[in-house]
Structures are given as C-alpha cells and as structure tokens.
Amino acid sequence: DTGVSQDPRHKITKRGQNVTFRCDPISEHNRLYWYRQTLGQGPEFLTYFQNEAQLEKSRLLSDRFSAERPKGSFSTLEIQRTEQGDSAMYLCASSPLADTQYFGPGTRLTVL
Amino acid sequence: QQQVKQSPQSLIVQKGGIPIINCAYENTAFDYFPWYQQFPGKGPALLIAIRPDVSEKKEGRFTISFNKSAKQFSLHIMDSQPGDSATYFCAASTGSSNTGKLIFGQGTTLQVKP
What we know:
The structure holds two protein chains of two kinds. Chain A is mainly β. Chain A contains no helices and eleven strands. In chain A, the strands form two sheets. In chain A, strands 2, 4, 5, 6, 9, 10 and 11 form a seven-stranded mixed sheet that branches. A four-stranded antiparallel sheet of chain A has the order 1-3-8-7, with no helix packed on it. In chain A, strand 9 and strand 10 form a beta hairpin. Chain A is globular, with a radius of gyration of 13 Å. Chain B has no helices and eleven strands. In chain B, strands 2, 4, 5, 9, 10 and 11 form a six-stranded mixed sheet that branches. In chain B, strands 1-3-8-7-6 form a five-stranded antiparallel sheet, with no helix packed on it. Chain B is globular and about 45 Å long. The mean pLDDT of chain B is 93. At the A-B interface, strand 4, strand 5, strand 9 and strand 10 of A face strand 5 and strand 10 of B.
C-alpha cells in the first residue's frame, strides 16, 4: 500500500500524559499537513510542512503541541500534558506540488 | 471563524435518487474546491475537485456545480447507491500558491436507503 499511513490508529491515555503520533506520507510528496477532527465536525488545520520546514501553524496549536518532520520524510505530532479536550481524530495528509491532499486513516486519541 | 458553510447537515434519499449538498464560501481568494467522502473510522477520501474557471465538472456519478458570482458550489450524486452512505465534506483552499491548507465545511451525513 503506497498511501499515507499513521501510527498508532488508536491511543488511550490519561490526562497529563504525553503522546506522540507518527505519519508516513506518500513517497516524494513534499507537502505534509496535520488536521484535527472532532466528532460531527470537519477537519481543522493544525500545521503544514514543506519538506522539513514547518511553514504554518494554526492558532489551534497550543504550546503543548509540537510537530516535526526531520529530513522531510515522516512527521511526528507530540501533545504534552494531554487534556480531555485533546480527544479527537488526528489526521495527516500529504500532497505533491499541486493542491490534491491525500489523507491517512487517522489516529484516534482518547484522553481519560 | 467559519469560512465554508455546508448544508444540509443530514440527508436521506432512496436508492437511485440524486442527493445534492451545498456549500458557500466567503474568501474570494479561494481557488480550489474539493469534495471528500468519509466513512466511520476512516480518513477522508478525495472524490472530485473543481477550480473557479469552470462551472461544472463530472467524474463518474459525481458532479460539482460551481457559481463563482454567488460564491457557492454543490455536489450532486447521480443514481445514488446504499454504498454511498457516508459523510461528505466540502473544502476550499488558496491552492498551491500558498500553503494549500484546506478549510472544511461541517459535513453532511448521507443515508441512501435500499
């Protein structure tokens, strides 16, 4: 399968713990996006990478959130000191130079 | 800040019917308008997309109609099937000239009855 992959698919954690998610984009896609989707809502943009450079961050991305894309390949999204409001589906998408974004299956986070 | 408004929130049609989902946008800088289909527990999958230089685009049973002056666009699903039952999202972006981040509508849950 050459699509976008995300790991883990599900994560249950206790409030206050740190979590890290991984996204592997489609090979040679230089653009990578993270979105968050809560139940019954459309995905909301979190951050954007072009190669290894993080070029835009949403105001939704508080100081507890950090994302990296070392070497312009896979990306990680870390949430520190998780809160119950962080419970959501975290989606990764990749894109070639054009507009088309291909989404991964998402990581569903539940904060107890 | 709601920049893309989608309606209806939910829709029920009979098999063979033509559900229509509408979206309206505010930002005239948007120049790329995709539609995504999402099944429960899955990521969104691109269905069809349009740019403002055309008024209609068809791909298989899916058609986008675009009205630039009204800042509205819609998705039509021809000969709908029970397998089309899913949540549909419209989106908009300023395309590859910027970050290309997508602004999504709130989604429409479609049920196609056999």
